[in-house]
Write a structure and sequence with these properties.
Elements lengths: L7 E6 L6 H7 L1 H6 L4 E6 L3 E2 L17 E2 L22 H15 L4 E5 L1 H14 L10 E5 L22 E6 L7 H8 L6 E5 L9 H12 L4
Parallel strand pairs: 1-2, 1-5, 5-6, 6-7, 7-8
Antiparallel strand pairs: 3-4
Length: about 220
């Protein structure tokens, strides 16, 4: 009898207003779909968030909502679709991811949702540029992602195309991160694979999406 193959280790970056625990719960169907193939490790942002979620971002309230960075100088707010006044807290967010990679690595891939997807893409870009904090993963999965915007027209996202394999998941009815934003992020990756689903701002894991995840990950089986 052949021994089971080692699991792929994937570091998962939660979205804005999500906790590590909440993101784990909301990806239960995905974890079940990847059982026997991947181990999902969860990480949420370093910054606490208070106040009600906007109407365009539905979902059950998180016990400890967190964020990776803010787009306002003082308010604990973030807009993915507008040029920010600043990227407050981004350096701390990068530090948290770098520490997680050092303490919990090595990992095979990164998975990010919404703001976490934008951060995962930025981490990959920095890793490709030689930042020693971010060893380049074998692959990245970006769900409801967007290209990070920087203040005064200077995006924090490096301009060079990213060469690592990537899967970009976008919701056709996503009101928080429109599909066009996710496609713009996919354009930053060479040979990007895109997966479109009919739903909104969530991590899809129904049968059609499950097959795409598995096909993408099987190429990295150890």
């Amino acid at each position: 009898m052949s021994e089971p193959r080692p699991l792929l280790r994937i570091l998962c970056l939660a979205g804005f207003r999500q906790s590590e625990r909440g993101f784990r719960e909301k990806t239960g169907s995905l974890r079940k779909a990847l059982r026997g193939r991947a181990e999902l490790l969860y990480l949420s942002g370093p910054h606490s968030i208070s106040g009600p979620a906007p109407a365009a971002d539905p979902g059950s309230p998180e016990e400890e909502p967190r964020g990776w960075w803010f787009s306002e100088p003082e308010a604990a707010a973030f807009s993915a679709l507008e040029e920010p006044a600043e990227c407050r807290g981004l350096d701390e967010a990068l530090g948290v991811v770098g520490q997680a990679l050092a303490e919990r690595g090595p990992v095979d891939g990164l998975l990010g949702f919404s703001q976490g997807a934008a951060l995962a893409a930025l981490v990959c870009a920095l890793g490709q540029a030689g930042d020693p904090r971010f060893p380049l993963p074998r692959f990245v999965i970006l769900i409801s992602g967007f290209r990070p915007r920087g203040p005064r027209g200077a995006p924090p996202f490096p301009q060079a195309p990213l060469s690592l394999p990537s899967l970009h998941v976008l919701g056709e009815t996503d009101r928080v991160i429109p599909a066009r934003e996710s496609l713009q992020l996919a354009d930053c990756f060479l040979g990007a694979v895109t997966l479109s689903h009919p739903g909104g701002h969530f991590v899809p894991a129904a049968a059609p999406q499950r097959q795409v995840y598995l096909k993408f990950l099987d190429q990295f089986a150890k």
